[in-house]
Specification:
By secondary structure, the protein is α/β, with parallel strands linked by helices. The protein contains 9 helices and 17 strands. The structure holds zinc ion (2 copies).
């Protein structure tokens, strides 16, 4: 078994502010390795995905519940120690930790399979220390065994972009043959497109993205039509998933929906720079004919499990670009600039 050092390295948020103004946004520090309490596991982190939500945390749109905070909620590692009362035999196993770090298990949402809506939802890397570190704690009941065929780095985007994307696809309630649209084509979009092609093989898929690079990547992955955010698709669309931080794509998507069409917004927060556009929301053009809008909030454990199973079946192997732990700031700044193929991942150990 691994020797557990007393101290570990972590990249932590100390202060909130605009990503571009903070120098640096995250601080590399040496802190005590945490000890697992009852029903907790100590996980040696192999890889942790970098998500736009970390930018939302640093910029205060969904700020950490305490500072300093170690972010990171797409973590793959090995269980190196079990706290008292652990029963699942996970010691030595490779597991993943997703955004759902814990939920209460007793409220009406937890009891009805909607633990993602639990008022006591604990978000990994926001409300409990996450995976931008050499070690982290996880709750035994809330970690996910990772299928052997999926590598550490490739597994990380499945735990957030994949799992939340899978949830948003479920909320679209698509029937095979009905058309799907994706507005924004980042880490989640490229996974959702591949899941949709597998689950709904006869459904045409339209992708709206600002950059030519993203559009050609979407076409490569099988999108039947691609265009800019404001372009009109060849035919109205039955369901659209929005993964952008802005409002313009929401208005454009509502206009592109077919009667009875559904828009699912998969974004933890929207930025307010173009919120004034909502004053142009027109009832007849954007909403009439039973068009609906919903959001996707967090994930449940079963979303994560089902996404991992689906990834095995397809097989779905995300494109990743890796950085060392201390490269987290560089990865976040690059993510904010956007326009990359696939996901960014911190790779801690081989
Ligand atoms: Zn995420
Ligand atoms: Zn609950």
């Amino acid at each position: 078994m691994t020797d557990i050092p007393d101290n570990m390295r972590a990249m932590r948020i100390h202060q909130l502010g605009s990503l571009n103004d903070l120098t640096p946004p995250l601080h590399l520090e040496t802190i005590s390795t945490p000890a697992p309490a009852s029903s907790e596991l100590l996980i040696q982190v192999h890889a942790c995905g970098v998500c736009h939500t970390e930018i939302d945390e640093i910029e205060g749109r969904t700020g950490p519940s305490e500072l300093p905070m170690t972010p990171g909620h797409q973590v793959v590692g090995t269980v190196v120690k079990e706290g008292p009362g652990c029963r699942l035999g996970l010691l030595g196993k490779r597991v993943g930790v997703a955004w759902i770090y814990a939920a209460c298990g007793a409220c009406e949402w937890c009891l009805s399979g909607r633990e993602n809506l639990c008022p006591q939802f604990v978000a990994c890397g926001r409300d409990a220390a996450g995976g931008y570190a050499e070690f982290m704690l996880g709750r035994e009941q809330f970690v996910h065994p990772i299928p052997e065929e999926i590598g550490d780095c490739e597994a990380t985007p499945l735990l957030c972009a994949g799992a939340v994307g899978y949830r948003s696809l479920r909320l679209c309630a698509l029937a095979n043959g009905q058309s799907l649209g994706l507005t924004g084509f980042g880490a989640s979009g490229h996974l959702v497109l591949q899941m949709a092609r597998f689950l709904y093989p006869d459904s045409p898929i339209s992708v709206f993205a600002r950059s030519e690079k993203e559009r050609s990547f979407a076409a490569e992955l099988g999108a039947t039509w691609t265009g800019d955010t404001t372009d009109t698709p060849p035919r109205a669309i039955d369901a659209i998933i929005d993964t952008t931080p802005a409002w313009l794509p929401v208005l454009c998507a509502m206009e592109s929906l077919a009667p009875g069409g559904r828009l699912v917004i998969n974004a933890i927060r929207k930025e307010d720079s173009d919120q004034n556009l909502l004053a142009g929301l027109d009832y007849e053009r954007h909403l009439w004919c039973e068009k609906s809008i919903s959001t996707v909030a967090n994930v449940t454990r079963s979303d994560v499990t089902q996404c991992l199973q689906l990834a095995q079946k397809i097989p779905l192997r995300p494109h990743v670009t890796t950085y060392p732990l201390e490269g987290a700031n560089e990865a976040l700044l690059a993510l904010k600039k956007g326009h990359i193929k696939g996901a960014r991942v911190l790779h801690l150990s081989p």
